[in-house]
């Protein structure tokens, strides 16, 4: 009777192992299918990482080659006082007044005049200040 119990126990454990192997096989196949679907995405990510690493190296090389710009030329204090002493014509908008002020200024070496957003922002604040007064 004892040998029959041991044989039944071995058969039960063997069946359990086979069921576990079958479940594990299905999970591994599902994982492999998912990895196969992700392969193009992983390849694209890998190439993007390589490209960004090359870009960083290129920027480092470029930053070491860049020469320092010449320091800006300082304007005389007399020019600033003269511009401040000019009378403000009546009936001009803040934008026109600012354009008139900027027209007489000399270009500072190493500095570029930027048109666009900054002018809009300054005009907005000039108009807002004018309305409060």
Compute the CA-based radius of gyration: 39 Å
The chain-level mean pLDDT equals 76
Q: How helix-rich are the residues, as a percent range?
A: over 70%
For the report, how would you describe the main beta sheet? none
Broad structural category = mainly alpha
SSE pattern:
HHHH
- Strand proportion, as a percent range, falls in under 5%
Q: For the terminal residues, how far apart are their CA atoms?
A: 110 Å
Uncertain ranges: none
> How many individual β-strands?
0
By DSSP (H or I, 4+ residues per run), the number of helices equals: 4
Based on CA inertia axes, which overall geometry fits? elongated
Keywords: Membrane, Transmembrane, Transmembrane helix
Transmembrane segments: 6-24
Region (Disordered): 63-95
Protein name: Flagellar motor switch protein
Structure in words:
Keywords: Membrane, Transmembrane, Transmembrane helix. This is Flagellar motor switch protein. This protein has about 130 residues and is mostly helical. The protein has a domain at about 25-60. It has four helices and no strands. The protein has helices spanning about 1-65, 75-85, 95-105, 115-130. The protein is elongated. The termini are far apart.
């Amino acid at each position: 009777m004892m040998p029959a119990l041991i044989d039944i126990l071995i058969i039960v454990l063997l069946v359990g192992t086979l069921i576990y192997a079958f479940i594990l096989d299905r999970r591994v196949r599902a994982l492999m299918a998912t990895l196969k679907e992700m392969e193009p995405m992983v390849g694209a990510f890998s190439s993007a990482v390589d490209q960004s690493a090359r870009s960083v190296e290129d920027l480092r090389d470029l930053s070491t080659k860049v020469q320092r710009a010449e320091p800006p030329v300082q304007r005389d204090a007399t020019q600033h006082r003269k511009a401040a002493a000019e009378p403000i014509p009546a009936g001009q908008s803040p934008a026109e007044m600012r354009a008139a002020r900027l027209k007489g200024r000399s270009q500072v070496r190493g500095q570029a005049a930027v048109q666009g957003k900054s002018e809009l922002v300054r005009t907005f604040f000039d108009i807002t200040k004018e309305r409060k007064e």
